Amino acid sequence: MYKSGKKQGSILSSGNFPNPLASAEEKATIAYGEKYAKAIHKQWGKFDETSSLYRKRSSVFERNRDYANGTQDTTIYRQLLNTYDPNNGDGSMMNLDFTPVPILPKFVRIVVNKILSQSPYPNVEAIDPLSSSEKDKQKKKMEMLVNAKQMISQIKEKSGQVVGADPESIPDTLEEAEIFFGQNIKTSAEVAAQIATNLTLEWSDFNDSIFRRAVNDITTVGMAVVKRNNDPNYGIVAEYVDPSKFIHSYTEDPNFSDMTYAGHIKTMSIQELKRIAGDQFTEEEYEHIARTAQKMYNYDAASLTRRQYDSNSNGVKHGYDEYMVDVLDFEFLSNDSIYFEEKENRHGNVGFYYKGESYKAPKNSVFERNPVKMDNLVVYGGSMVICCEKIFSYGKKTNIPKNIHDITRATLSYSAVAVNMRDMVPKSMVDSCIGFADQIQLSHLKLQQSIAKAKPDGIIIDIEGLENVQLGKGGDLQPLELHDIYEQTGVFYYRSKNPEGGFQNPPIREIGNTIRNVNELIGIYNHYLRMIRDTTGINEAMDGSSPKGDQLVGVRQQAISAGNNAIYDITNCSLVLYKKVCADIVKSVQIIPNDSVIYRVYENAIGAANMDVISSFSDLYMFNFGITVVKDMEEVEKQYLENNIQISLAQKELDIEDAIAIRQLKDINQAEKLLIIRRKKRMASQQQIAMQNSQMQAQIQQQSAAQAAEIKMQEVQMQSQIKAQEMQLEAQLKIQVEQALHELKKEIEQIKAEAYAYAKESDNSFKKEVENMKEDRKDERVKKQAVEQSKLISQRDGKRGELQEIQEQAAAAAQEISTGIISRILGR
After folding, report:
1. Do 336 and 478 have their domain in common?
2. Residues 191 and 271 reside in one and the same domain
3. Residues 818, 694 within the same domain
4. What is the mean pLDDT of each run of 10 residues along the chain (828 residues)?
5. Is there a domain that residue 524 lies in?
6. Which of 203, 570, 672, 811 has the most CB atoms lying inside 10 A of its own CB?
7. Which residues make beta-bridge pairs with 822?
């Protein structure tokens, strides 16, 4: 059953396993299961023996956990520093703090929290042919919608009705549709299976409890185990299994895919054993179990005979009910033969009939019969009380999840993974760093010792320079007295000359406080800390211990990538475990009996239609699901993606809605692909807008030119009209002026004629009046001449002045005469 060879024999002992070719009836007996359980017990050695593989591996795991928690045994450090007998040393080790330095817990938490921070979740995808063809149909439908999106949008704009799908929900390109397929295109079976898987994980508190402990186990001990239970009362439950208590068949596969048996040790009280086993054991057998456990584990013997009536349970409580016993839960794979019969009936038709697990061909049959044998892999399991090797709850397991496309295969309910498996013992990250952690602890203790041995500040006193110091009448002072004065005042007196007359140094000198080897010990401490970093691959950039400003962004990203590569085996191992658990749950959901209570629970939780889809056997096929574990992006990937988003937003190559859609994706490849598609889409829309803008600008320019030309023509027309109007006005004005001038001339001529006639008449009358006036004035002139002559004569004789006044009067009279004549003319 197992590989032969020297190396194989040194790992597992040869267990006396029962005949694997036994009939199904024999395998179902208690004796067969007891023999198989004893063989497992023997192969792993006595579980309480230190030389057994179980104890060796368990001790390694427990030691690793102590170091991972910073609670390792400090005895080794005391032995190395030889402090058991304080009389052999100087006593400086007595008061040292031997508490371990918690270095490894920090690195364990960094790895565990980094893996858990990515929030893995299952993505269920149907991989059977019918589901694939259905998804192909949906993809082709989506491609048709993408190609007809413009037409659908036009129909919606014109009629207001949606044809096929809302154009706003249809991708613009086939590349964008591919991303849409990966995110949204799921068949009803996939949706139902994914809901059921997430619901089962939530009921088992898998993500918050079991998976966290499993990742911590992978980091600390290098192995993690989860068990699936198809409990008729509690449904499908994922249960954490301590790797130190896990046993299995020999394997070199880190995914344990070739296990033939597996089990784990559970420690429980006999009272709990009674609850589980019930009446499978008699009270005498329970008492026998208690007596065996008392001898093996040295329990209180007086409890064996103590009895007490319990009114709550209406039964007797025994004192040994509190004894703790180890119980081995085990299961193994076995081949059971199934027979079918190919038979021809009287009509000549051939039928194929199921005949069960045992078949004997009838003799002297009328029709031809051909038996067909098929090997069916099944699971048997039970529990054994280790102290007395009593078995209970044994039998063939029911509700075993199988792949419908290969119903002959079955798997155990244990999902186990390991890293660096060698000789059935994995080599974990913590195990690789234990030696360095010990050296760090020793450096820390030696540093404490150096600090304890450090002397306080002191002084050197030269007594020769302080003897017989005279201070006048007080006499001489002795060295102790001078020391007291120095301590109290800080002043000391001494002789600067020695007895020979030469000068000497001050007799009191201070001694500084120094700690021996402190720098060397700190250097050793940092050296082994670097060794842990080199071994684990967790550098300063990955754990955030170095400030961001101390390194360039590219250097930090390279350091973080190097750290991720170093812990990739742990990360991958945890995701493989997550995937195996989810795949096991999906298969278990598919085989829940339709008339069970658990089926109704799932039906109420995820809906009757979903349960009908994923658990229906009425069709010729059953959905075959593939599980992929999706996780959040790494911090470096998130930062890289966010930088590209910000650059694209700054260059207006993305909209805010596009950035939000990209950030919601968890896969970096899909996010980058969507970023490229949205950038191209945005750039194409910008180019289209630019073309539309240029076309609009050209149209505007054309319209402006046409408007300018039209305005110019209108201006020319207006100017010509204005000129014509001006010419017309000018002509009219000229005519009016000519008419006015003609009228004026006519009036002038009339006035001239009248004036001439009047002037003629006035001239005649004037001449007459002048003649009359001349005649009338003639006498006056004669008189005046006589007077003037007399005046002249008198003036010559010097009797009168000049004749100016007379001349002026004559001029005034002449003026008056002329004015009167003109007035009469004008008045007429």
Report:
1. no
2. no
3. yes
4. 39 75 86 91 81 88 92 83 55 71 90 85 70 68 73 74 69 64 62 80 88 94 91 81 92 89 92 88 89 87 80 74 91 83 73 70 70 80 90 86 67 91 88 91 86 72 62 63 73 65 66 74 90 85 61 64 80 90 84 75 72 56 62 67 79 77 69 73 76 83 84 84 82 81 79 76 74 70 72 68 54 61 52
5. no
6. 570
7. none
List C-alpha distances in Å: 348 to 6, 135, 345, 367, 412: 60, 42, 5, 9, 44
Residue type for 37, please? A
* Residue in this structure with the two tokens 């004669």, named with its chain if needed: 782
| 253 occurs within a structural domain | no
543 closest CA partner among 46, 114, 234: 114
Q: How many CA atoms lie within 13 A of 669 on its CB side?
A: 6
Note whether 201 and 98 are same-domain residues: yes
Q: Where are the alpha helices (DSSP H) in 384-478?
A: 429-453
Domain annotation covers residue 59 = yes
| Nearest CA among 207, 268, 270, 273 for reference residue 240 | 207
Do residue 438 and residue 320 come from a single domain?
no
This prediction has a pTM of 0.68
Given 150, 168, 186, which residue is the final one in a domain?
Answer: 186
* Residues 614 and 749 placed together within one structural domain of the fold: no
Q: 523 in a domain, yes or no?
A: no
Q: Are 332 and 413 in contact (CB under 8 A)?
A: no
Domain of 27 in residue numbering reads as 1-43+260-411
Residues 234-260 as b/e (b if ≥16 CB within 10 A, e otherwise) read ebbbbbbbbbbbbbbbebeebbbeebb
Q: Which residue has the tokens 């001029």?
A: 811
Q: Which amino acid is at 640?
A: Y
Q: Long-range CB contacts (< 8 A, 24+ apart) of 214-217?
A: 214/240, 214/574, 214/577, 215/112, 215/115, 215/116, 215/570, 215/574, 216/68, 216/108, 216/112, 217/243
Paired with 132 in beta bridges are none
Name the domain count of the chain. Answer: 5
Query: Within 10 Å of residue 119's Cβ, how many Cβ atoms?
Result: 10
For residues 142 and 74, membership in a common domain is answered with: no
For the chain, the farthest-separated pair of C-alpha atoms sits apart, in whole angstroms, at: 217
Q: What is the DSSP letter of 432?
A: H
